[in-house]
Amino acid sequence: MASTQKRIRDFHMAAIVTVLFCGYVSSCGPGPRLVSPRKYKKTSPFVLKQHVPNVSEYTLGASGQPDGPIKRGDPRFKDLVENHDSNVIFRDEERDGSDRIMSKRCKDKLEVLAIKVMNQWPGNPPEVPAVKVRVKEAWDDNLLHGETSLHYEGRAVDIATSDRDRSKLGTLARLAVEAGFDWVEYESHGHVHCSVQSDSAAAVQSGGCFNADGMIQLKNGDRKRMSELQIGDNVMSMRSDGAFEYSEVIAFMDRSD
Fold it and tell me: Rounded distance, CA 28 to CA 172, Å?
């Protein structure tokens, strides 16, 4: 029994060390591209309080640690952008345009989601217009959220649908995951919370690709450099629920030796 427990502990330590050394394994993401950095099978809508990935919002495998609140007078404020996508509805209850302000990465993901939402619920023009994503909250400098909220950095949005149909929120959350948000939670009966990694994160700045010298763990126990990776290799990776598994390499979406 003691020996079995030791082997389990050793396995867990090996898995943790592998993830810390290799980073979060998910093709060429995250990055500032408009395609989703992860591929998820289409599954059922979220249930209330469900979040993906199944780890804390502030962990490396999700949106990461906060960088700190950004005020209008902060030098970092100039790095935020305004979203004027006509496919998105902004509540703008503050009447100061703050719900349009967000990080570049957040804007990119929201624009992808906007297209997905209209494709999901196309309506019947001109009588019934397509459903659009509705932003209820984005960047905020009124400190109305939790102390470490990513809303203060423009890295989070609370969203619903333009028709205010709450029965659509579970599907909306699933679409947000497919759009590439780094963390999505069906947070309340009124909205879905989505957040992204910081634009200053090294992975985002470099496009999200792995370094050629990075080491990877193979299913047979061997390790090799990323530059030596071949189609057909089975490498340790992380599922959307945070569990470890070995996944077969089937293609290189973007490779430069």
Answer: 24
Instruction: Return the structure tokens found at 61.
Output: 């495998």
Q: Which residues contact 257 (CB under 8 A, 6 or more apart)?
A: 212, 227
* Helices of type H across 23-93: none
How large a percentage of the chain has pLDDT more than 70?
77
The region of weakest confidence among 17-21, 114-118, 129-133, 151-155 is: 17-21
Distance CA 120, CA 232 (A): 35
Answer yes or no: are the C-beta atoms of 48 and 186 closer than 8 Å.
yes
- In order of start, what are the domains of the chain with their CATH numbers? 51-203 (3.30.1380.10)
Instruction: Quote the pLDDT of residue 43.
Output: 63
Angle between helices 104-120 and 169-179 (to 10 degrees): 130
Q: Which tens digit of pLDDT belongs to each residue from 32-76?
A: 443 344 444 456 899 999 999 999 999 888 999 898 999 998 999
Q: Which residue from 89, 167, 95 is spatially nearest to 129, judged by alpha carbons?
A: 89
Find the angle CA(85)-CA(125)-CA(172) to the nearest 5 degrees: 50
Average pLDDT over residues 214-230: 90
